[in-house]
């Protein structure tokens, strides 16, 4: 497969600015894979990267850094030691590659790598500490790529990276969610996918809490037994208080943690998934008195993306329903405006990097 010498890529400028330029083609190392990107999507972390609040010390020089950690594409080149993938394979990327030498990584918790951001020790986070997928081509370590099953298109593959985060959240519970009462706070992409995964894992009752009726309607279609607004009145809302075995806080809102604690039963568990815009205060006495455990996850760790792919292979997830907007890579600034402004109730804003039907691998 002939590979060009340069590519189109979206690079960060000054805070709040991003533009598409020509960059040299990435040069894969012995353990690397070169991926031709077909689809990529935006998430809340990308907004923080765009305005540079994500970085410490100001971040990379303008015009040098390519964001994007949710993407899928086709393998077009492999390093000399790579035999796990072949040219032509369709793949989805997970963002985090730990150093694989620290205590966290050796325990399987590579999204909590103790050498986060230290390139010399092998850590990479696609689109966060190294160049990512808002480009025609991207370099990945082979361990961060997973083959897409037949019949799962590139857009669905991209959404699977978010499903991986949800799977990670259920992982940290340390036991099956089968038969559990689950409350999900925040009907964004993570929350809506959490409803689907909880259903597939056999949760006995699933409640979705949010403020937008259109998104709550998605939740009901995906399997939520109850949908309601935060702090809503009525019998259903009252019945939920103190009832949940598991609460997933996906909203990142200031009051989300207090809401989560109120829904959790005594001895229940709360998993924090959403990122918060600012420091949060909450009633920890309620947690202590009631023996409620607070847990948290970052990204799609502990091999959870591979399990998400397995669910998709069996047709158990409705992924494309979350894709509300499709924008060419060359209009990436417009894509951010759509996403940040929630234009037309945007959920997943997909960048069309390569025009095709999303299924063929050539």
Automatic annotation (TrEMBL):
Domain Enoyl reductase (ER): 13-351
Annotated Pfam families: ADH_N (PF08240), ADH_zinc_N (PF00107)
Keywords, ordered alphabetically: Metal-binding, Oxidoreductase, Zinc
Gene3D superfamilies: Medium-chain alcohol dehydrogenases, catalytic domain, NAD(P)-binding Rossmann-like Domain
Statement: the UniProt record of this protein carries the keyword Oxidoreductase: yes
Single GO term (MF): zinc ion binding
Cofactor(s) required for function per UniProt: Zn(2+)
Cited PROSITE patterns: ADH_ZINC
Domain of life assignment: Bacteria
Similarity annotation: Belongs to the zinc-containing alcohol dehydrogenase family.
PANTHER family documented for this protein: L-THREONINE 3-DEHYDROGENASE (PTHR43401)
Protein known as: Alcohol dehydrogenase
Protein's organism: Nocardioides silvaticus
Highest classification ranks of the organism: Bacteria, Bacillati, Actinomycetota, Actinomycetes, Propionibacteriales
């Amino acid at each position: 497969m002939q590979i060009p010498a340069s590519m189109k890529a979206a690079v960060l400028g000054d805070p709040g600015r991003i533009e598409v330029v020509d960059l040299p083609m990435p040069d894969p190392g012995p353990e690397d894979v070169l991926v031709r990107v077909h689809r990529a999507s935006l998430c809340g972390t990308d907004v923080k990267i765009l305005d540079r609040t994500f970085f410490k010390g100001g971040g990379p020089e303008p015009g040098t850094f390519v964001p994007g950690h949710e993407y899928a594409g086709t393998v077009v080149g492999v390093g000399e030691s790579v035999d796990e993938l072949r040219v032509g394979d369709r793949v989805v990327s997970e963002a985090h590659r730990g150093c694989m030498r620290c205590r966290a990584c050796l325990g399987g918790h590579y999204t909590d790598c103790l050498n986060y951001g230290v390139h010399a020790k092998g850590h990479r986070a696609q689109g966060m500490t190294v160049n990512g997928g808002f480009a025609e081509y991207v370099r990945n370590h082979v361990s961060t790529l997973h083959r897409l099953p037949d019949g799962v298109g590139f857009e669905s593959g991209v959404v699977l990276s978010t499903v991986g985060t949800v799977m990670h959240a259920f992982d940290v519970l340390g036991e099956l969610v089968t038969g559990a009462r689950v409350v999900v706070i925040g009907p964004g992409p993570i929350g809506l996918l959490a409803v689907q995964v909880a259903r597939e894992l056999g949760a006995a009752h699933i409640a979705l809490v949010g403020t937008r009726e259109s998104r709550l309607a998605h939740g009901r279609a995906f399997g939520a037994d109850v949908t309601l607004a935060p702090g809503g009145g009525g019998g259903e809302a009252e019945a939920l208080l103190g009832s949940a075995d598991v609460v997933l806080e996906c909203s990142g809102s200031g009051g989300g943690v207090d809401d989560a604690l109120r829904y959790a039963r005594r001895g229940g568990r709360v998993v924090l998934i959403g990122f918060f815009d600012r420091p949060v205060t909450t009633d920890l006495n309620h947690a202590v008195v009631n023996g409620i455990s607070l847990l948290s996850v970052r990204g799609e760790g502990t091999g959870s993306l591979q399990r998400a792919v397995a669910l998709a292979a069996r047709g158990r997830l409705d992924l494309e329903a979350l894709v509300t907007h499709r924008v060419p890579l060359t209009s990436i600034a417009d894509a951010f405006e759509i996403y940040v402004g929630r234009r037309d109730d945007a959920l997943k804003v997909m960048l069309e990097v390569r025009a095709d039907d999303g299924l063929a691998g050539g």
